[in-house]
Write a structure and sequence with these properties.
single chain; 108 residues; mainly alpha; 434 Repressor (Amino-terminal Domain); 2 domains
Length: 108
């Protein structure tokens, strides 16, 4: 459901914009400047009081050096999460990870 059409007071989808900003060591002011929005707007987006647009999400991802999907799916503070381990792996290790995961899924 588009956030634009949500009823007032409806629960918004969880995102990790604030966590990515902190992960990159940026202040609200600095990130707001990078994406050319006000600090107040960014604060409202981070707190869930204001929905984000696709354009804003893409600008934030660009400024935070991640993918837009990362901002809504990945908490960068979870060092042991599979995506964090994947990013640390070299190409050979990634092939090994894929093989292990395929074997686990095939065995299930």
């Amino acid at each position: 459901m588009s956030l634009r059409f949500q009823k007032p007071g409806a629960e918004r989808r969880r995102h990790f914009i604030k966590e990515w900003r902190a992960h990159r060591g940026l202040t609200l002011d600095r990130l707001a400047d990078r994406v050319e929005i006000s600090k107040a707007t960014l604060s409202r987006i981070e707190s869930g009081k204001q929905p984000y647009t696709q354009d804003t999400l893409e600008a934030l991802a660009d400024a935070l050096q991640c993918e837009p999907a990362d901002l809504i799916m990945r908490d960068p503070t979870k060092a042991g999460a599979i995506w964090s381990l994947w990013e640390q792996a070299n190409p050979v290790q990634r092939q090994q990870i894929e093989s292990v995961v395929r074997a686990l899924l095939d065995a299930a």
